[in-house]
Amino acid sequence: MTRLLVVHHTPSPGTREMLERVVAGAGDPDIEGVDVVARPALSATVSDFLAADGYVFGTPANFGYMSGALKHFFDTVYYPSLDAVRGRPFALYVHGNNDTVGASAAVLKLTTGLALEQVAPVLEVTGDVGARDREACYDLGGTVAASLMG
Question: Which pTM does this prediction carry?
């Protein structure tokens, strides 16, 4: 079975809501053969990363940057998996109170270094998570999971 790893940091109700919708979308009944595994960024390991066939990364925007937890994840997995994950699909969602640009840019630099393939535009949400945002999260999860279907 193909595995989608969702690595996230969810300290707020908004990021929790986004995570839940991404996971729900990835697990849509029309998507078959994809095992969805969600791991908090501080618990996800190199083994988790290498065992996955695709990824969704989720983070709040903290002081113009990704969360320290997600940064720690990338620091942990970067060199041990550098050439092993090349070309695997990924997507990113970011939640901020008023700005997400720096957080998105920081994650995209790391995914570029890992040579991951971005399969959906970055989903950036500022302020409260609304109905359209929830739907976009669902679609994001589904897009990455569908990209893994053989």
Answer: 0.97
